[in-house]
Structures are given as structure tokens and as C-alpha cells.
Amino acid sequence: MKKRYLIAAGAYGLAGAALATKLWRRPRDVEWTQHAARFPNAERTRFVEVDGRRIHFQEAGDPGTPAILLIHGFCASKFVWNDVLLPIAAQGYRVVAPDLVGFGFSEKPRDGEYTIVSQSRMIVRLMDELSIERATLVGSSYGGAISATCALDYPERIERLVLVDAVINDEVKEQKLLRLAAAPVMGDLLSPLVLGSPRLMRWRMRQTYSNGNARLFDDARLNAQQLPLRS
Fold it and tell me: For residue 58, what are the CA distances in angstroms to 2, 98, 134?
């Protein structure tokens, strides 16, 4: 019996050590200069400081044309707009696709306020930094909720609103994976393991694509989404 307990204790100890090592080695952030070659439209990347936070975005089109901001969803980045950034600009628009605070290559402050309201405030202040008086917002999922909040709180700044499968209630919080991620201590320990696993990320992302759009999912898309989440 004692031998069994010793083996179990040793196994738990090794598992704990492996987890601690993974957490310790997890990068605090991802540097754009180290990964720029892997991302489309890299030459259009810019950074600007908004409320003391470094915000990454890509921009295309004539600054004198009507502005469109593309707002990505939860656990995503501006990468989701890569295929439409230039085509929309070619239609006569100034297109800006930012990474929200905590996502992509934008700053990820440990003490940051990661709420829909705070993200919408950042979007409007980003518009201030770029001298954009009014803009059309296109928001996907969580980004749809942020865009709608911008329209409600800053109606004078929003020309039009386009919502793509927008989050409109709290039902998403009931998903098992997100409930686990939000759990005190347990979420802090397990979330990095889930986000750091290419296999789990591949499975999760595949669930978001319809059968008709399965061809759009590839390793480049997986790697682009997972890379910033590792931090």
C-alpha cells in the first residue's frame, strides 16, 4: 500500500513540476518584430499608445476616405480580417483593423480592465489618435458586442454598425471551457495548458467553421491565432 501511495505522490509531483515549468516558461508577451514575416500585410502594421497601452493595428486605404474599423472576436486577433482588409480599402475606404487590449500583438497588462465597456472606450480613443471623427464599425462575435456598445455610448462617432454573429447576452459564459477558464486558481492553472495545446486549439477552432467554410481553416490560421494566446 505504501508503495502505491509513493508512486501516486511521485506522479502528482511530476505533473505539478511539469505544469509549473510550463507556466514559468510562458512568454509575458509576443514581439511583433520576431514574427512579422509570418503574417500577411505586415508592411501595414502600426502601433499607437492609447490610454498608456500599446495598441497594434493594420491600416489600408486613403486617410481621406470614409473610415471602417474591423473589430475581432474573443481569443482572436486582427488576423481574422486579413482576407478583406485590402479588398474593402480598394472600394474607397480607409480600413483599420486593431488588436483589442490583451489580444494579438497589443499590450496585455496584468492589471488591465478586460470588459466590453473598456474595449469600446479604447476603440473610440484609437479613433481619436488616428484623427477619425466618425467611422463604420464591423464587429464579429465579442467584437460585435464591443461595436454595439460603441454605438450606444458614443453615437456621434459611429456612422454605421455591422454585426457579424455578435455576442448579445451572457450565454457564452455558460460554455464549459469558459466556465473552467474563469474558475479561481483552477482557471489560472489550466487555461495556459489549453491555449498552449495546438491539438485542443485545432479542435476548438474547427467547431467554429461551418462545413461549407472548412477550406478556410489551415495551419497558418491556427498558428496565427494561437501564437499570441500563449502569453
Answer: 61, 6, 18
Report the relative pairing of strands 158-164 and 135-140 from DSSP bridges: parallel
Amino acid at 7: I
> 58-98 pLDDT, tens per residue?
999 999 999 999 999 988 899 889 999 999 999 999 999 99
102 touches 114 (CB < 8 A)? yes
The grid coordinates of residue 170 equal 451572457
Whether 170 contacts 137, CB under 8 Å: no
| φ, ψ at 56 (rounded to 5°) | -95, 140
Burial class (CB in 10 A: 0-12, 13-18, 19+), 70: buried
How far apart CA 68 and CA 44 sit, in angstroms, is 15
3 state DSSP class of 116: helix
Q: How far apart are CA 71 and CA 157, in angstroms?
A: 15
Distance of alpha carbon 91 from alpha carbon 114, whole angstroms: 34
Q: pTM to 2 decimals? A: 0.81
